[in-house]
Amino acid sequence: MTRISVKVDGTTYEDEVEPRLLLVHHLRDRLGLTGTPVGCDTSNCGACTVDLDGVSVKSCSVLAVQADGCAVTTVQGLSTDGEWTGLQKAFHERHALQCGYCTPGMLMAARDLLKENPRPTADEVRHALEGNLCRCTGYQNIVRAVLAAASDEEVRT
Amino acid sequence: MTEGAVEAEVGRARLRKEDARLLTGQTNWTDNIQAAGMLHLAILRSPMAHARLERVDVSPARELPGVVAAFTGSDLAEGMGSLPCAWPVTEDMVHPDHPPLAVDEVRHAGDPVAVVVARDRYAAADALEAVEVEYEPLPAVLDLEAALAEDAPLVHADKGTNRCYDWPLRAGEDYAAVRERAEVVLKRRYHQQRLIANAMEPRAVVVTPLAASGEYTVYSATQIPHILRVMLAMVTGIPEHKLRVVAPDVGGGFGSKLQVYGEEAIALAVARRLGRPVKWTESRSEGYLATHHGRGMIQDVEIAADRDGRLRGLKVDLLADMGAYLMLVTPGVPILGAFMYPAIYKMDSYEFRCTGVFTTRTPTDAYRGAGRPEATYAIERIMDELAAELGMDPVELRRRNWIRHEEFPYDSIAGLTYDSGNYEAATDKALALFGYDELREEQRKRDERGDTVRLGIGVSTYTEMCGLAPSRVLRDLRYAAGGWEAASIRMLPTGKVEVVTGTSPHGQGHVTSWSQIAADVLGVPFEDVEVVHGDTRAAPQGMDTYGSRSLVVGGAAVHHAARKVVDKARKVAAHLLEASERDLEFTGGVFSVKGSPEARKTIQEVAFEAFTSHDLPDGMEPTINAGHVLDPENFSYPHGTHLCAVEVDTETGMTRIRSYVCVDDVGRVVNPMIVEGQVHGGLAQGIAQALYEEAVYDDDGNLLSGTMADYLVPSAVDLPDFVTDRTETPAESNPLGVKGVGEAGTIASTPAVVGAVVDALRPLGVTDVPMPCTPERVWRAIHGEEDPA
Amino acid sequence: MIPPAFDYVRPHTVEEAVRALADGGEDAKVLAGGQSLLPLMRLRMAFPQLLVDTGRIPGLRGSRMEGDTLVVGAMTTHHGVLHDALVRRHAGLLAAATATVADPAVRHRGTLGGSLAHADPAADLPAVILALEGELVAVGPRGRRTIPAREFFTDYLETALAPDELLVEVRLPSTDGWGFHYEKFQRVAQAYAIVGVAALVRRDNGSIAEARVGLTNMGSTPLRAPAAEEALAGAGDAAAVKRAAGEAAEGTRPSRDTSASPEYRAHLARVLTGRAVLAAAGMG
């Protein structure tokens, strides 16, 4: 067992974990933060995407021990005082989700894109989301939502 | 909202009520559920396609730390029946046993062999490696035609054959005679590759037992909590009233969660045995073996026509891959398609036969469209071939044969009554949006220039049968259940409304759409309606969600129930206003007396009066709640025209979709935003079948496309922007005029895309490219070579 | 799925890491970004007993110039490589190919050294390093040694690294001024390349003076295409380039999988080499 300290959505958690514990299982099974789901076992689907020290990662392909001392932001830490982020609003308004299982990962991947490229083209949005699979939407409304969030100063806050 | 001046809810692009939780991670997926003392299951699966189990020893696993129990198939055999098949399509169908955990033989890679139970999922995964199994290999059965030979090795030796059933349909004039007279006869063979649904949420099940009273709650990532409850009661012998089934948040299904799975029965059996809550969650690659596959057919199609393009007859011979066992509706999937091969066309004769074949592969069952995409693919592809043979534009050929709008209602040759449709309107709109003539002109110019990147245009004019289903028709098809749907409405004392539905959404937005339907009839604000679903205790009656049925049957049931509420409320209002019911008007949720508008009661006021019941009309039962169970009188028949332009790089074989236009007629639209989303998603899956996806097996029956890295689910980069539009010809068979939209995009798009690929290459002598149209297959087709696989 | 259990150490220096690897023996593995290793472990296709996490060792990230040689730290992430100004200038081919690796989240974790040490012939960067004629610097209990890229990739998922050696940096002679292009052919954006072609071109008076071609997924290791390279020298127009590209599959032994046959891969290598070289030479 290895002792780790990980800050998740603003709260620091110290735990003894097996080295093989995946970050996503640490979040889900140990911390009860089940907003981040698991969709595959090959890091293809991206449903488990979180922010690790400022960049998007697939939390199924990171060990919890590798996140020791780091800060994690999950979909559950996006809104502040119940106020949604511009991306969350845009996903709602553009019908960018159906079953919602890929949504946490999509939001985190899109957020990462907009941090690095605040005014992406549709093509850049599609490439930025290539590691996040959705089976419901055909992606068109997700792309629209990300572009809307990027272009709407008011929504972006 | 001003009383009396209400905007109709039906038809509005209401934003979804479902989104708030999903956008903030406050979800309730089955795998999220925790219970005190919960144990985790892991299942050991056969690595071989077919083998006798010589020895299964779970005792070494039991010795590992954290492992609570481990069971073989024999250990759990008692109290566990065969998994159900609800659709014995013929009287003499061969129906083998299907134990949830194999006892003496495994029949496909992934067939469950043992189950281990441990404190957490990590310990359970480790324990699998300790189970000792000796397999005595048996021959794999993979080729559908070879499997029917006299001396073929058998999947189920005790049955003496791999032939599951023969199901024939003959309609109209004698086909042989029609064929004899026809001026042109074309025959083609198409392969429907196996597909894996890939709902983003892997399957999961949690069972919490109350041992003292013998009660069990089953949480499952399922589309069918109600059917599952009945079936689990039958499989396990647990009395149905002691079983509660909950479908919590469910992350997509596409047919793959329309099933009664072995893991559900195993989890229930283990929870019963140990008296402790258990959880099983599949991993994605495990699901590729364990969750049923879709499609898997060989289609021999023959079409007979006159030189002027008029269709005379159609003959279809199917070989349908059942896989190793019959699951819930495995045999019926191709039969659903049987009625759709004639599609929107008029003809004199139709002959159909389907042979179900057992193989040593994962069982097949419903996948988005279930039989109808296969049928549409075959007819639309052979229509293209006929057009080419006749030197006719493929759209013109369709025009000459389709049912004209003034001919509805129309009895199709396959025996269905199409209630409404307007194929001309949808096609004309699609052609204009697509710029059909301009693209044909560009195609001609590029062909003349000898471009190595060729342009191809594909068209698909489809219809489908949705709104499953009139119960009497299901009886005639030998399906073991009805096709009704239930809804009830509770008018709460404070004026809020609960709609209880028997449908079980997993992404379709029923909560939003059902709220719109109820709000319209009741005249209450959209925000004041809540929709309860997916729990057999809270929503006890239902037939669940599949086959584009939810809105057509379940949504219409909500409408009927709401009207009953209004009828009851009218009686109470008339009594309170001392007026006759005939003199009451009801608009915007307000009853008023004609001619004296100050005499009024809102439906919320009436609900409160009915709650106190202090002053009800004589003989009236308290409350104005009402329910309705709707058995539809007919199917519904959405239709539309899809057009696809592709560019095919003839040097590499790579296909890129350049534009995609569809005009669908799904009848009246409750929520256009949701409808558009359904179309987008359907298109993505249909295009994926055309270009990307295939469950590939090797000669030994191993699944080669066994992980998400090998089975190519398209990403945002791989799909185009779609242009979607609609025409609106209301359905006649339900009061909402709706037809269903869940499967339309998937059904229509596959032939449009493949048709476009073939169209691009036709001047090079290509008449078909097998699906998926991989770059290599396209390249080989150009060079006149067979597919090496 | 769940990875098998292992022991874990997180050394703070290269020396500690090497000692840990030496102590762990054959069953020890370096954990760099983990983007190839962890999925394999989750599928239980790899069972290391010890993971040596090199993620926190200082000095293994970023780049510097040593004379005309660009030195990139082995633990530099793909994302870091992509955004590195020195890489973009002196090894533009590497930046271009790195942009096609996996997806943004994987590029945040995956490392250049990890990808090279994993030595998957279907991965994009090994062929690129071959074309760049790079050198790989490893540190082990016996000290530091430099391995030319052409000797590094020994077989499918096999390299010249000893189990107790740690890859610390990649040295790339500057190709500033060369034309470059990475042509990746894949069925969907996430899939491995069916074939990839890394082309580097030095032009002289409108003709190709020197061309280097690296091939992804055309054998059990990444490969160069020497016959095509030789034929390309002196090519002055598109027709000549395409003719020369016809030699690209010489000596390759591509595999068969669910996406392509060996014959088709060979065909693609020829077509894509033509395209890559034309793009690199600005002759498209």
UniProtKB/TrEMBL annotation, chain A:
Keywords: 2Fe-2S, Iron, Iron-sulfur, Metal-binding, Oxidoreductase. Pfam families: Fer2, Fer2_2. InterPro entries: 2Fe-2S-bd (IPR002888), 2Fe-2S-bd_dom_sf (IPR036884), 2Fe-2S_ferredoxin-like_sf (IPR036010), 2Fe-2S_ferredoxin-type (IPR001041), Beta-grasp_dom_sf (IPR012675), Diverse_Oxidoreductases (IPR051452). Residues 2-78 form the 2Fe-2S ferredoxin-type domain. Transmembrane segments: none annotated. It comes from the Bacteria. This is (2Fe-2S)-binding protein. It comes from Streptomyces cellulosae.
TrEMBL record, chain C:
Residues 1-177 form the FAD-binding PCMH-type domain. Pfam families: CO_deh_flav_C (PF03450), FAD_binding_5 (PF00941). Transmembrane segments: none annotated. Residues 243-263 are annotated as: Disordered. Keywords: FAD, Flavoprotein, Oxidoreductase. The keyword Oxidoreductase applies. The keyword Kinase does not apply. This is FAD binding domain-containing protein.
